[in-house]
CS domain-containing protein
Amino acid sequence: MSEKLAPEKRHSFFHGSQKVFEWDQTLEEVNVYITLPPNVPTKLFYCKIQSKHVEVGIKGNPPYLNHDLSCPVKTDSSFWTLEDDTLHITLQKREKGHTWSSPIVGEGQLDPYSTDLEQKRLMLQRFQEENPGFDFSQAQFSGNCPDPRTFMGGIRSD
């Protein structure tokens, strides 16, 4: 039933007029999508994921991304894949339910309004996860939304 909730909106980070990456998040993970350059063999791409750092590039060249992450991740359950013309990085949040305003420190931060919308969406996702028999697809928050990570004693870890 969680598919009835509003889908994650991909946020885009641009440097000048060039899109660097897109990203979205769920309660448990942050997904980063990087469009790959054409005519480069896929075996040349690499991605190193550390607890607080990510590096992406083409072997033999300076890294395309070499930045600290906004929040720590679980490296043992974070991974990357190549999907058609996209490098997809799945970062497992160390703190489930924490709302990220950007995957990268100081780059492409969401404005306060967009961060609030993300927090509301994650809160609904938490409600849906904890109450699978209910439909929260039309639910809305009026006013400030509580933090999905800490609301009513925090997220259960069953």
Remarks:
- The chain has one domain: 2-150.
- The CA atoms of residues 52 and 72 lie 5 Å apart.
- The chain is about 10% helix and 35% strand.
- The beta strands are 11-15, 18-25, 29-35, 45-50, 53-58, 65-68, 73-83, 86-93.
